[in-house]
Amino acid sequence: MTIALPPMTDAQTAGWHALLQVHERLPRSWTLVGGQMVHLHCAERGAAPARPTDDLDAVLDVRADGRILHRFTSALVDLGFTSAGTSPAGHQHRWTRGPAQIDVLIPRRVGERAAGRRGVHGGTTLETPAAQQALDRSAVVEVTAAGVDGRVRRPNLLGALVAKAAAHTVVLDPGRARHRADFAVLTTLIAPSDRIEDAGPRDRGYLHGMLAALADDRRTLLRVDGAADGVATLREILDA
Predict the structure, then answer these.
(1) Residues 93, 17 share a domain
(2) What is the residue range of 194's domain?
(3) Residues 195, 228: one domain?
(4) What is the pLDDT of residues 123-137, one digit of tens each?
(5) Which superkingdom does the taxonomy of this entry point to (predicted)?
(6) CB atoms within 10 A of CB 109
(7) Which of 30, 139, 167, 171 has its CA at a distance of 20 to 30 angstroms from the CA of residue 36?
(8) DSSP states of 117-137 as a string?
(9) Of 209, 196, 193, whose CA–CA distance to 158 is shortest?
(10) What is the CATH number of the domain that holds 29?
(11) Paired strand residues for 102
């Protein structure tokens, strides 16, 4: 099955086309996360995402491939991308080409050596929670984006839910509300085949934490069609 993405902005289209090209060169050791992961799940199941987003996020499996950060950023540079700058901590996580923006991340708690891996311009990159489970739950899907066919790796729905719930735990993130909206949308897609009951103890900790946050965010539940039922379904599965 090929997932057809709906009409997109120029920035979103450019980012998708670039990421499909990266997958042609590097088909393993990374996966799509973030808002575009949510858009892809929505497109697959005929739902509408809760919010627009133009940037793309990729998380790299530095445990499986110690050179993936260098290889991935090299591929971006070959495609015309440049680093958007270096943080005081030495991170170069954002890469841009015209309107296209791709954020490159690695899992949290991979160890000092893996976290210190450097990209093509010598920078390290940001760690993000629950990224390893997203990588472990990923598979390749066929995608068509604005007339271009390609492939990309992305987490299954359980992996996506846990990733979004974990992202919400980053308290210094000024845009945590977007994670609640994305998570709410993902709950509306839950089907028996998604086997949400396979969530492990750490997964469940993240999921329960997000459910608690949504219980205090009635605005998001009202704004996202079907979210109240989706959240109730998820809670029922976790409490079974």
Answers:
(1) yes
(2) 156-240
(3) yes
(4) 999 999 999 999 999
(5) Bacteria
(6) 10
(7) 171
(8) ---TTS-B-EEETTHHHHHHT
(9) 196
(10) 3.30.460
(11) 56, 95
